[in-house]
Specification:
By secondary structure, the protein is an all-alpha fold. Helices cover 74% and strands 0% of the residues. The protein is globular and about 55 Å long. The protein starts with a helix and ends with a helix.
């Protein structure tokens, strides 16, 4: 259980620091906007590039990835279906679908993988799938619906190529696929910049909590409750059912895919919502609830399957 507790403790401390900075106004009124812009436009693209540039792309063909992809699609599809039936907007549906299925595989998944699963590389499949497929697709949807503006066909087709997050991911994959090694003098500045990503996201998230009430209130209450339930319950159940029943995984392999699916929604989803100024409360509260609920869920999974 040390990995679960360590991961959550690190996240909680940094978010708390952001909250205190927000309450004191230490970074000014625009601190959240600046940190969000820094993370979205510079730091996270650099982190994605340096992470994926030397990744083993053979994990794309692994059974673990198929289970991860199926669980992601299942949870997101339920939210999208409910959202369409209830007439929620495109931005709200997109952010809610992400909060229902996009796991915190980076700053929480890695320590959990090290201490619970014994191997940090076990989160690589979900990292690759989210960075290569889910993120570019979701951000393209958010780009295309922004402000309801009419967008020319050529701009629609090239939207992923103009999004810094997608560019960072796809560039890293291209380098990994080519087998080229980025020279160290070029890689080190990108690594240094990329190291700002997670702290910036967590600090911005903490600042956003200043003055906020209890989670799951207001117009987004049904969407928040649905996304948190899907993330902490439905997605791990789908991963377990597919892993055990379809791919016949057992032991450590089954524990790996279920623990990964039970990770809470990633904090960078709030960055996306804040950047596009859509469903920010939904993202913030869904992340808070799924993070809180995932603690007992991960402990129970480790006890049952470990």
């Amino acid at each position: 259980m040390q990995g679960v507790l360590t991961g959550f403790a690190v996240i909680a401390v940094v978010i708390a620091v952001g909250y205190l900075l927000g309450r004191r106004g230490s970074l000014g009124d625009d601190a959240r906007t600046v940190l969000t812009g820094l993370s979205f436009g510079v730091a996270t693209p650099a982190l994605l590039f340096t992470t994926l540039a030397h990744a083993d792309l053979s994990v794309v063909l692994s059974e673990r990835l198929l289970v991860t992809a199926a669980g992601t699609v299942a949870a997101a599809s339920v939210f999208i279906t409910v959202g369409l039936l209830r007439g929620w907007g495109t931005g709200q549906i997109t952010i809610g679908a992400l909060c229902s299925s996009y796991v915190n595989a980076g700053n929480l998944g890695i320590p959990v993988a090290v201490y619970v699963l014994g191997d940090a590389s076990l989160v690589a499949p979900v990292l690759l799938f989210q960075q290569i497929v889910v993120t570019p697709l979701a951000l393209t949807v958010l780009d295309l619906q922004r402000n309801g503006e009419r967008i020319a066909l050529w701009r629609r087709l090239t939207t992923p190529l103009r999004n810094p997050m997608a560019v960072g991911s796809l560039s890293g994959v291209a380098v990994a696929a080519s087998g080229w090694t980025v020279p160290q003098p070029a890689l080190e500045p990108l690594t240094l910049i990329g190291n700002m990503s997670v702290p910036a996201v967590l600090l911005a998230f903490g600042i956003s909590l200043r003055g906020s009430g209890l989670p799951a209130r207001g117009e987004y209450k049904p969407a928040i409750a649905l996304s948190a339930a899907l993330k902490t319950t439905a997605q791990p159940l789908v991963a377990w059912a597919l892993g055990a029943g379809v791919f016949h995984l057992h032991g450590a392999a089954l524990l790996d895919v279920v623990v990964t699916a039970a990770l809470p929604a990633a904090q960078n989803l709030y960055t996306y919502a804040s950047h596009y100024r859509v469903a920010e409360q939904l993202a913030r509260d869904s992340i808070l609830l799924s993070t809180a609920f995932s603690v007992p869920a991960l402990i129970a999974i480790a006890a049952l399957l470990g």
